[in-house]
Give the backbone structure.
Amino acid sequence: MTNNGITVQGLNKRFGSFDAVQDVSFEAQDGKITAILGPSGSGKSTVLRMIAGLETPDSGRITLAEEEQTFAPVQERRVGFVFQHYALFRHMTVRDNVAFGLSIRKEPKAETRARVEDLLELVQLAPYADRYPDQLSGGQRQRVALARALAPRPKVLLLDEPFGALDARVRQELRRWLDDLHRELNVTSLLVTHDQEEALELANEVIVMHAGRVEQVGTPAEIYNQPASPFVAGFIGAANVIEGSVRDGHLIFGAHRLPGATHLDEGVSAHAYIRPLDIRLVDPAVANGHSYAAVVERVNDLGPASKVRVRLADGQPLVAELPNEDLPVLEAGDRVLLDLRNVKVFEGEGAEVRNAAPLSEEG
Amino acid sequence: MSARVDRTPTLSPLTRRRLVHGGLIAVAALYVGALVLAPLIGIAWAAISAGWATWRETLTAPDTLHAYLLTAIITVITVIVTTVFGVIVAIVLTRDHFPGKSAVSALVNLPFAVSPVIVGLMAVLLFGLGGWFQPWFSAHGIQILFALPSMILVTLFICLPFTIREVAPVLQELGTQEEEAAKTLGGSAFQTFRRVTLPNIRWALLYGIALSAARSIGEIGAVLVVSGSTTGQTETAPIYILRQFDQSHDAEAYIVALTLAFASIVLLAGIEFFKHRSETRRSR
């Protein structure tokens, strides 16, 4: 049996003077869901469109299911493509939409009919077979689009922000549904998204892209716990940034010192990323030297947890998300002690680094 | 009357708004009615009162039949050419980027801006005695001016914008995603055009065809200049009407005029009808 994986090597694409994709390489494994995660303009959709054959790379190599397809016409690649805005054929019924790929390939009529009915069953839209796209909800349309893409039995499934145009509740629902569907079909899937939750929840492997380059490739846990670059640390999990300078392997800010900067040179300016969920209140009675004094500025109760805005002794703000369970009543002006965990320290000044091109040490 | 009632302060705002709306509707109906419907009824009345004998005589006369035939030939060729090339130009203008695109886009509107008589004169300039292309065509024994080719050429020029102007905005709004989807599903460029693009632009295309056809049926200014209007040879139906009218054969002129107007109306109404039917069938 052939390996239906996707391999991309050294892909480059310019639009005019804009480098949309620069030296992108990765692998999407056979039968798995791989996510390309990045903000808008990071080049992730362009990569997907080049894999589909909807754009032509300036250089690089694309291999689909063990065959080099870099410049093959889109029709011959046997990819299923799902667009953000569905791209259903508006003048065709749901059934005709799903049958399109089969009728183009002149499959026998009876088989086409059976396959279409099966797929409509699979996406739970059998009762809607004779409707037109504009008579369906967004979630239903995207399910039709998925059935249509799957109908000609593609080797790989490419999804371009498939849930991006849907509202939050439907997005959650479809995400879970796609996960189940994939468990059943095991088709190699490459999912492009700007929604980190979506990528971390669905994918076996995540490729983080930024400014046309790959920032990090890893499992969701690796991406979350060991961000390889300031961009990844800042992009995943809405992190706080603390700025300071390095002394003795610590990040010094005000009267405080954070551990975790042993990999940086003495005296350089650096910044640390701390996720709101990695901040804990410390009981003053058991405090040791590793807690940080701060003043509460504002408390928002979110139900299961509270979002607490504090200011550190040196004036830098932090947002903490603290579970409401055994959280003392906090008010603006209260003095608290904080424990900061999973701190990631990178060289450079935070604001500067986040806006600049990716650092050279990342691939 | 309604304007005076309008100012009466005892009227509720809702009533006043209704009166304003009613007034606007009346103005619109009157404007269109007076300018379009009244002349049409006038022609119909004049033609019908000519009597059955005159109708039969006019519609069976060889000159009339020849004029109809000539108009039909010009119309059919114009519609075919403007449809094929109109769709190509519309696709190029909406899907491709090339230097000078906005100039081409503006040029497409030119026939709307130029008087048909000037179009005729331009053709005379190019194909008449001493014209740029005249020596070549004369040497090859091809008669352009005062013959069918020049009549078709000027009609083509005048009808060029209709299909493009109807189809291009629809293509623009459609975007390329459905076409891209068709290609990822294995559709060739032609299959994609026939099964996805064409069905989506079909009503715009039919409108363009109807407008081109109606215009070529009625076109006279440019055709008159280049045709030489020889009765029974280069006399189209509108030129026939003009000649009969000049010769005080008013009844014949009215009868042929009514048939031409009828043909154009049937074209436009037919499209409205089929469009409406397909829409109601869909949303059943």
The interface with chain A takes residues 177-178, 180-188, 191, 195-196, 199-200, 282-283 of chain B (CB under 8 Å). The two ends of chain B are 43 Å apart (CA to CA).
